[in-house]
Design goal:
TIM Barrel, 6-stranded antiparallel beta sheet, about 675 residues, alpha+beta, globular, Immunoglobulin-like, single chain, about 25% helix, 14 helices, binds alpha-D-glucopyranose
Length: about 675
C-alpha cells in the first residue's frame, strides 16, 4: 500500500480510518509542513493541475480557485461565496505535475486554500498541530481514491426499498396529510416507495415521540401505508427538548449523558423544540443510550430514519440572547441617528445562530478525557449517525435499515448516507448537486442525493422535471421542500403523465443502479466518477463539469438550463445515446467521440451507453416490490454482457455467489 501516515502532536481518535498503520518517519513529500503556529501544508500548483475531493463542498468537481473551510455548518444559503456546508471531508487529490492524495484526520475547523490567495499555491491550515496526515500515492487520481477507500472501511449499504423514490415536505402533520400524498401518487400511478416524516410528526418536537392527537395507533397507520407499499421515514433531530417528565430528557440529565458546560451544568441551545440539550454522542455510553432510543420507533414498524440538525445547529443560546438584548438596549437608549449602532445590533442578532463562542462553551466526556466541543466540532453528526447505526446492529444484526444524515465526517460513511441539506429551487443547484456526487463518492459517501425540486424558494414544473431527470440516477432520490414554499409533489402539476414517465424510468433502471451501487460498495469503489477518472488519457475529460460516469456502463448528462431544448455533451469515445421517450419507447443513436448537441425534451430522460457495453432494463413498476427483476430487457451494444448483482435487498448476505448473474445482449 502506498499510504504513509504522519502523526503531529496528539491527534484526537476520530476512527475515520479503520486500518492500523505504523507512523512513518521523516517528513512527507509533495509539500512543506509547518507546525509553528498551528499546522500548515503548502505546495505549488502547476498551471494544469486539477484538485479533486472535499466531498460535500461548494463549487466544482475541480476544486481549484477557491477557499473551502471544513466546519460543519447549518447554512441554508448555498450561494457561490459559501465556504462551509454541513459536512467536513478532508480528503483531496492533486493531479498533474505531481499526483498525490492527502487525508487530514482532524476534527476541528480546517481551511483548504486551493489557489485562492495565490492561484499557484495550495495551502491547508488549522489552529492546532494535532492531527494524522495520510499521504497517498498512485498512478492516477482514481487509483489514489481507491487506496484511500480501502483504509476507511466499507460504505453503508441501505435496504433496497431505499432506492425507490421518496416524497417529503416540511409541513405534513396528520394522517390525512400523508394519505393525501399517498393517494396523489397511487391514483396518478406515479411510482413512490417512501414518504418522509418531517418534524411535525413529533409531540412538541420531542425526539422519539409521536404527536398524541394526530398519530394515535401509529403501528396500525404504518401497516395501512405498508399495505399500499409505502414506508414512512421519520426525522430525528440532535437536540433533546428540555421538559420535565419527558423520559429522554430525564434519563439524559440523570445519567449525565448531555454535553455540559465548564461549570458542569447541562449546555442549553435552542433548536426547533425550543431549549434543548445535546446528547453527548462522542461519549460511548451516551451514544449507546441515544442509539437505543431508535428502537422505540423500529418496534412500531419504522425501517429508516434521517438525522438532522446535527452540526449541531444552534438557533441561539440563553447567553447569546442575553448579550444581544444588551446590545439592543444600548442601541435604543443611545440611538442618535448614526448607523453604526444599527449594524452592531443587526450583526449581533444575526450572529446568534451557530455562534463560535457557543461551540467553545460546551464539552464532551470521552472516558477520562474532557474535550471542548470546538476541538471536535465536525464529529457530532458522524457520531449521532453512528449511534443509530450501532443500535441497528443490536436491534437486528441481519437487517439493513435506511439511515442518512445532514452533517458528516469521513468515517460516518460506514453508518449512513447523507443528503446535501437545504438547497434552493434554483437551476444552478441542479448542477451543484451533480458536481458534489463524485466528490462525495471519493470520500466513501455512496448513498447520497439532494432535495429534488429544491428545498427553499418556489419551484417550477420544468425545474422539478429536469431535476428528477438527474435524481433518478442518485442512490437517494427524494423530492423535499420547505414549509411555506410552493407545493412540489409530482402530482401537483399539470400533465402528470410526464412525472409518471420520468420517475418511472428510475424503476426501469433500478436493476442496473442497484447493481452498480452494490458493486461499488462491496469493492470500495465509486458509483459516480468524473470523466477524467475513466478516460485519464483524454486531455479534455478533466474539463467536463456537467456530466458524470455512472458505474462501468453509462454516462449521464442532464439538462440544467431553463427553457433549453437540449444541451451540448462531450463524448470521450463513441457511445450510444439513449432517450427514454414519454410513450415508453427507447430512442437509440450511435454518436461518435467528440462534441454534440443533443435535443432532450422536458419529458425525456437521456443517458449514454459506453461502446461495447449494455445495461438491463426492467418493465415500469410503481414500487419496489412490484419490480420484476427476473424478466429484464437489455439495451446497448449487441454482443455485450452485463454482470448483474442482485440480492434480497433486506439482509446482509452480500457475498452469496447467486447474487451475480450474467446477462447477454445477443
Ligand atoms: C432543516 C432540514 C430540512 C427540514 C427542516 C425542518 O432545515 O435541513 O430538511 O425540512 O430542518 O425539519
Amino acid at each position: 500500500m502506498m499510504i504513509k501516515k504522519y502523526v503531529y502532536g496528539s491527534p484526537f481518535e476520530t476512527e475515520a480510518v479503520v486500518v492500523n498503520m505504523e507512523a512513518a518517519e521523516g517528513i512527507p513529500a509533495y509539500g512543506a509542513i509547518s507546525t509553528e503556529d498551528g499546522f500548515s501544508f503548502t505546495c505549488k500548483l502547476d498551471a494544469e493541475d486539477v484538485v479533486y475531493g472535499l466531498g460535500e463542498a461548494n463549487r466544482g468537481i475541480n476544486k481549484r480557485g477557491y477557499c473551502y473551510v471544513s466546519d460543519c455548518t447549518d447554512d441554508p444559503n448555498h450561494t457561490e461565496g459559501k465556504r462551509s456546508l454541513y459536512g467536513a471531508h478532508n480528503f483531496i487529490v492533486v493531479s498533474g505535475a505531481q499526483t498525490f492524495g492527502l487525508f487530514l484526520d482532524y476534527p476541528a475547523k480546517m481551511t483548504f486554500d486551493i489557489g485562492y490567495t495565490r492561484m499557484d499555491t495550495l495551502k491547508i491550515t488549522c489552529d492546532h498541530a494535532d492531527l494524522y496526515l495520510y499521504v497517498i500515492e498512485g498512478a492516477t487520481p482514481y487509483e489514489i481514491v481507491k487506496q484511500f477507500r480501502k483504509i476507511i472501511g466499507r460504505s453503508y449499504i441501505p435496504p433496497k426499498f431505499a432506492f425507490g423514490f421518496g416524497q417529503s415536505r416540511w409541513g405534513y402533520r396528520t394522517k390525512e396529510d400523508y394519505r393525501e400524498v399517498a393517494d396523489g401518487y397511487r391514483e396518478n400511478h406515479i411510482p413512490v416507495d417512501m414518504i418522509y416524516m418531517d418534524i411535525d410528526y413529533m409531540q412538541d418536537y420531542k425526539d422519539f415521540t409521536l404527536n398524541e392527537e394526530n398519530f394515535a395507533d401509529f403501528p396500525e397507520f404504518l401497516k395501512e401505508m405498508k399495505g399500499r407499499n409505502i414506508r414512512l421515514i421519520p426525522i430525528i433531530d440532535a437536540g433533546v427538548k428540555i421538559e420535565k417528565g419527558y423520559d429522554i430528557y430525564e434519563e439524559g440529565v440523570q445519567n449525565r449523558y448531555f454535553c455540559q458546560k465548564e461549570d458542569g451544568s447541562d449546555f442549553v441551545a435552542a433548536v426547533w423544540p425550543g431549549y434543548t440539550h445535546f446528547p453527548d454522542v462522542l461519549n460511548p455510553e451516551a451514544r449507546k443510550w441515544f442509539g437505543d432510543k431508535y428502537q422505540i420507533l423500529t418496534d412500531q414498524g419504522i425501517e429508516g430514519f434521517w438525522n438532522d440538525m446535527n452540526e449541531p445547529a444552534i438557533f441561539y443560546t440563553p447567553e447569546g440572547v442575553q448579550e444581544a438584548g444588551e446590545t439592543v438596549k444600548e442601541f435604543v437608549e443611545n440611538a442618535n441617528g448614526e448607523h453604526s449602532g444599527f449594524f452592531k445590533v443587526k450583526d449581533k442578532v444575526l450572529g446568534l445562530s451557530n455562534n463560535e463562542k457557543d461551540y467553545r462553551s460546551f464539552y464532551h466526556q470521552i472516558g477520562e478525557q474532557r474535550v471542548r466541543h470546538d476541538r471536535v466540532h465536525n464529529l457530532f453528526g458522524y457520531n449521532m449517525t453512528r449511534a443509530a447505526g450501532e443500535a441497528f446492529d443490536r436491534i437486528d444484526p441481519d437487517r439493513r435499515f435506511l439511515m442518512f444524515s445532514r452533517s458528516s465526517y469521513i468515517g460516518m460513511h460506514r453508518y449512513g448516507g447523507i443528503w446535501t441539506g437545504d438547497n434552493m429551487s434554483w437551476w444552478s443547484h441542479i448542477l451543484l448537486n451533480l458536481k458534489m456526487m463524485p466528490s462525495l463518492n471519493m470520500c466513501g459517501f455512496l448513498y447520497t442525493g439532494a432535495d429534488l425540486g429544491g428545498f427553499g424558494a418556489d419551484t417550477t414544473r420544468d425545474l422539478v422535471l429536469r431535476w428528477l431527470a438527474l435524481g433518478i440516477f442518485t442512490p437517494l432520490m427524494r423530492n423535499h421542500s420547505a414549509l411555506g414554499t410552493r407545493v412540489q409533489e409530482c402530482f401537483r402539476f399539470e400533465d402528470v403523465e410526464d412525472f409518471r414517465h420520468v420517475v418511472g424510468v428510475r424503476y426501469q433502471l433500478l436493476p442496473y443502479l442497484y447493481s452498480e451501487y452494490m458493486k461499488a460498495a462491496l469493492s470500495d469503489d465509486m458509483y459516480f466518477r468524473p470523466l477524467a477518472f475513466v478516460y485519464p488519457e483524454d486531455s479534455h475529460a478533466s474539463q467536463v463539469e456537467d456530466q458524470l460516469m455512472l458505474g462501468d456502463e453509462i454516462m449521464i448528462a442532464p439538462v440544467y438550463t431553463q427553457n433549453a431544448k437540449g444541451r451540448y455533451v462531450y463524448l470521450p469515445e463513441e457511445m450510444k445515446f439513449v432517450k427514454f421517450l414519454p410513450d415508453g419507447s427507447v430512442y437509440e443513436e450511435i454518436l461518435l467521440a467528440g462534441h454534440h448537441y443533443v435535443e432532450i425534451a422536458l419529458n425525456e430522460v437521456p443517458l449514454f451507453i459506453r461502446q461495447g457495453r449494455c445495461i438491463p432494463l426492467a418493465a415500469p413498476a410503481e414500487y419496489m416490490e412490484a419490480l420484476d427483476t427476473e424478466h429484464l430487457m437489455v439495451i446497448g451494444y449487441p454482443g455485450s454482457e452485463y454482470v448483474l448483482y442482485e440480492d434480497d435487498g433486506i439482509h446482509k448476505d452480500y457475498d452469496a455467489p447467486e447474487n451475480l448473474r450474467t446477462l447477454k445482449f445477443e
